Amino acid sequence: MESARDELVKHGHEVKIPELALEVPQEFGGGKKVYFGQYIEQNGGIDAFPAEHKIWDMKEGAINDHYEKIDWCDGILVINHEKRGIDGYIGGNTLIEIGVAFYLKKKIYILNSVSSELSYKQEIMGMKPIMLNGNFSKI
Predict the structure, then answer these.
(1) Global pTM?
(2) pLDDT tens, position by position, 35-64
(3) Residue 74: CB partners within 8 Å, gap ≥ 6?
Protein backbone atom coordinates (compact mmCIF):
# COMPACT_ATOMS: atom_id res chain seq x y z
CA MET A 1 0.00 0.00 0.00
CA GLU A 2 2.86 2.35 0.74
CA SER A 3 4.38 1.98 -2.74
CA ALA A 4 0.91 2.46 -4.31
CA ARG A 5 0.48 5.61 -2.22
CA ASP A 6 3.83 6.92 -3.42
CA GLU A 7 2.90 6.20 -7.05
CA LEU A 8 -0.45 8.01 -6.71
CA VAL A 9 1.17 11.02 -5.04
CA LYS A 10 3.55 11.22 -8.02
CA HIS A 11 0.44 11.49 -10.22
CA GLY A 12 -0.84 14.41 -8.12
CA HIS A 13 -3.36 12.61 -5.90
CA GLU A 14 -3.88 13.23 -2.20
CA VAL A 15 -3.79 9.82 -0.53
CA LYS A 16 -4.56 8.33 2.85
CA ILE A 17 -3.82 4.69 3.49
CA PRO A 18 -5.01 2.50 6.34
CA GLU A 19 -2.86 2.17 9.42
CA LEU A 20 -0.96 -0.96 8.38
CA ALA A 21 -0.01 -1.99 11.89
CA LEU A 22 -1.09 -0.75 15.28
CA GLU A 23 0.86 -0.55 18.49
CA VAL A 24 -0.62 -3.11 20.81
CA PRO A 25 -1.43 -2.86 24.51
CA GLN A 26 0.81 -4.56 27.08
CA GLU A 27 -1.47 -7.61 27.27
CA PHE A 28 -0.72 -8.29 23.59
CA GLY A 29 3.02 -7.91 24.03
CA GLY A 30 3.04 -4.08 24.12
CA GLY A 31 5.40 -1.60 22.55
CA LYS A 32 5.38 -3.16 19.11
CA LYS A 33 3.26 -2.88 16.01
CA VAL A 34 1.28 -5.85 14.79
CA TYR A 35 -1.04 -6.78 11.96
CA PHE A 36 -4.38 -8.00 13.31
CA GLY A 37 -4.67 -11.02 11.05
CA GLN A 38 -1.12 -12.13 11.67
CA TYR A 39 -1.42 -11.63 15.42
CA ILE A 40 -4.65 -13.62 15.58
CA GLU A 41 -3.22 -16.45 13.46
CA GLN A 42 -0.09 -16.67 15.61
CA ASN A 43 -2.10 -16.78 18.84
CA GLY A 44 -4.57 -19.57 18.31
CA GLY A 45 -6.76 -18.27 15.50
CA ILE A 46 -10.05 -16.37 15.56
CA ASP A 47 -11.79 -18.81 17.89
CA ALA A 48 -9.13 -18.24 20.55
CA PHE A 49 -10.52 -14.72 21.03
CA PRO A 50 -14.07 -14.65 22.47
CA ALA A 51 -16.49 -11.91 21.39
CA GLU A 52 -15.78 -9.78 24.47
CA HIS A 53 -11.98 -9.87 23.98
CA LYS A 54 -10.22 -6.48 23.75
CA ILE A 55 -8.75 -7.32 20.35
CA TRP A 56 -12.19 -6.89 18.81
CA ASP A 57 -12.36 -3.34 20.19
CA MET A 58 -9.08 -2.66 18.40
CA LYS A 59 -10.40 -4.25 15.21
CA GLU A 60 -13.55 -2.12 15.47
CA GLY A 61 -11.40 1.00 15.72
CA ALA A 62 -9.42 -0.01 12.64
CA ILE A 63 -12.61 -0.64 10.64
CA ASN A 64 -13.99 2.75 11.66
CA ASP A 65 -10.70 4.37 10.65
CA HIS A 66 -11.04 2.82 7.18
CA TYR A 67 -14.66 4.03 6.90
CA GLU A 68 -13.61 7.58 7.80
CA LYS A 69 -11.04 7.49 5.01
CA ILE A 70 -13.68 6.26 2.56
CA ASP A 71 -16.01 9.07 3.63
CA TRP A 72 -13.18 11.60 3.10
CA CYS A 73 -12.09 10.46 -0.35
CA ASP A 74 -13.34 10.77 -3.91
CA GLY A 75 -12.53 7.13 -4.61
CA ILE A 76 -10.84 4.04 -3.25
CA LEU A 77 -8.10 1.91 -4.72
CA VAL A 78 -8.17 -1.80 -3.98
CA ILE A 79 -4.70 -3.33 -4.02
CA ASN A 80 -5.47 -6.95 -4.82
CA HIS A 81 -2.21 -8.78 -5.29
CA GLU A 82 -1.82 -12.54 -4.84
CA LYS A 83 -2.63 -13.78 -1.36
CA ARG A 84 -3.18 -17.28 -0.03
CA GLY A 85 -2.29 -18.64 -3.46
CA ILE A 86 -5.06 -16.65 -5.19
CA ASP A 87 -4.16 -14.03 -7.81
CA GLY A 88 -6.39 -10.96 -7.57
CA TYR A 89 -7.44 -11.81 -4.01
CA ILE A 90 -9.91 -9.56 -2.20
CA GLY A 91 -10.64 -10.43 1.42
CA GLY A 92 -13.64 -9.91 3.63
CA ASN A 93 -12.56 -6.59 5.11
CA THR A 94 -11.86 -5.16 1.67
CA LEU A 95 -15.19 -6.46 0.40
CA ILE A 96 -17.10 -4.51 3.04
CA GLU A 97 -15.00 -1.42 2.32
CA ILE A 98 -15.89 -1.70 -1.37
CA GLY A 99 -19.54 -1.94 -0.31
CA VAL A 100 -19.29 1.21 1.80
CA ALA A 101 -17.60 3.09 -1.05
CA PHE A 102 -20.32 1.91 -3.44
CA TYR A 103 -23.07 3.02 -1.06
CA LEU A 104 -21.40 6.43 -0.64
CA LYS A 105 -21.14 6.73 -4.45
CA LYS A 106 -17.34 6.86 -4.43
CA LYS A 107 -15.29 5.69 -7.39
CA ILE A 108 -13.93 2.19 -6.91
CA TYR A 109 -10.64 1.31 -8.59
CA ILE A 110 -9.25 -2.22 -8.52
CA LEU A 111 -5.58 -2.65 -9.40
CA ASN A 112 -5.65 -6.20 -10.81
CA SER A 113 -8.26 -8.58 -12.19
CA VAL A 114 -10.52 -10.03 -9.51
CA SER A 115 -10.06 -13.76 -9.07
CA SER A 116 -12.91 -15.96 -10.22
CA GLU A 117 -12.09 -18.20 -7.24
CA LEU A 118 -13.83 -15.68 -4.99
CA SER A 119 -17.48 -16.62 -4.42
CA TYR A 120 -18.38 -12.93 -4.16
CA LYS A 121 -16.81 -11.77 -7.43
CA GLN A 122 -20.25 -11.12 -8.88
CA GLU A 123 -21.04 -8.71 -6.03
CA ILE A 124 -17.78 -6.87 -6.64
CA MET A 125 -18.41 -6.61 -10.37
CA GLY A 126 -21.98 -5.46 -9.71
CA MET A 127 -20.57 -2.42 -7.92
CA LYS A 128 -19.00 -1.42 -11.28
CA PRO A 129 -15.36 -0.96 -10.28
CA ILE A 130 -12.89 0.62 -12.67
CA MET A 131 -10.36 -2.08 -13.49
CA LEU A 132 -6.84 -0.66 -13.76
CA ASN A 133 -5.02 -3.78 -14.97
CA GLY A 134 -1.97 -2.65 -13.00
CA ASN A 135 -1.93 0.84 -14.53
CA PHE A 136 -2.09 3.61 -11.91
CA SER A 137 -2.29 6.30 -14.60
CA LYS A 138 -5.92 5.29 -15.30
CA ILE A 139 -6.93 6.98 -12.04
Answers:
(1) 0.87
(2) 777 788 888 999 999 999 988 988 898 899
(3) 106, 107
